[in-house]
Every structure is written in C-alpha cells, then in structure tokens.
Amino acid sequence: MMKRYCVLFSILLYGCSNLPTAIQNTPFMNLSYQQVNSDAERYRDIPIRWGGVIIDIENEAQTSLLQAVFHPLDHSGRPQSHKPGIGRFVIKSTEFLDPAVYAKDKEITVAGIITGDIELTIGKRTIRVPLLTATAIYLWPDYPDYYRQPGYFYPYYGYPIYGPPIRGGFYGPYYR
Question: Which end of the chain is more exposed for a tag (fewer CB within 10 A), N or C?
Fold first, then answer.
C-alpha cells in the first residue's frame, strides 16, 4: 500500500516540473558564470544550462551568434532578470535565429556545450566572454514584471516586496 502512495507521489512531483520541455531533458552541470568566465578552456565540452536577457544577435552564413547578459535561473529555469546581470556570454546556434523573434530584452534559457570563449568589442574595450554551442534554446514568453507590481506577494515567503519609489508611489498596499 505504501509503495502505491510513493509511486503516485513521484508521478505527481514529476508532473509539477516547471521546466519547459525544450530544455527539460538536456543533461547539464551546474557551473557558475564566474567559474566558466575565469577559465573557459578548463570547462570546454561540458554541458550547461544558463539563462539571460538578449542584448544582440548576429546572423552569419552558417550560424547565428546571440549575445546575452547572464542571470541566474530560478526553480522553473527562467532567468531572474529582476536581479542584476553578472556578465555577458555568447550562444552559437547552427539554426537561423530571427532577430525579430529573438529581440533585444527577451529572456532566454539555453542548454549547450561550453566551446571556449570569444572576443567582443564593446565601445573601445575588448573583452573575452564564454561561448556556448546551443543544443536547445527556450525563448520565454513576455509577461508583466510581477516583481515590480505594487502589492506583489513573493510566493516563497508570503509577504509583500517593498522597494524604491516607482511612478511616485511605493511598492505595496500600505504605502499608497
């Protein structure tokens, strides 16, 4: 009898998985941006899952290079774009990524293989950032920024988030 409940509970937990199917079954190692950025060659050919916000996209003859700002992922695999970005990384895809679809400021989660680093010129500075070859890319649908809505209740702790003034008011129902 207890085994039946355990199996049923396991099935229910599996059904509650919030990861999009495009990236759900891809193998990955949990490496931080700082680890890979400090020595990308050391982590070459290791599968990872990262997310961020699109900055730019460049389509070449055979590949697309998508540049993003790294944001840590939440429990559902979505980039936590309400937190500060950590650094840039580049995603290389053999598929054509339409700039109208993969537009600036869209959130993405990518499963891919670390293939080293790439040199970028930003303004007058040249920097090296991690380069990933994508095995799966998930473009998140737009939704209202709930973390910035007045009176938003943070789901993990059950109390409102209060912060700096926005449009002349404060977050939360008590400061209106």
Answer: N
The model's pTM: 0.70
- Note the pLDDT of residue 94: 94
* Closest C-alpha to 129, from 30, 32, 29, 36: 36
CB 133 within 8 A of CB 115: yes
- pLDDT average, residue stretch 110-117: 94
DSSP of 13-59: HHHT--S-HHHHT---B---HHHHHH-GGGGTT-EEEEEEEEEEEEE
| Tens of pLDDT, residues 57-81 | 999 999 999 999 999 998 888 999 8
Structurally, the chain folds into a number of domains equal to: 1
Residue 146: predicted pLDDT: 53
Residue 170 maps to a domain: no
CA atoms of 135 and 115, how far apart (whole Å):
12
Closest CA to 130 of 64, 62, 59, 70: 70
Taking the C-alpha atoms of residue 23 and residue 91, their distance in angstroms, rounded to an integer, is 15
Domain extent, residue 88, equals 20-142
Residue 64 lies in a domain: yes
Residue 152 CB neighbour total at 10 angstroms: 16
Residue 66 lies in a domain: yes
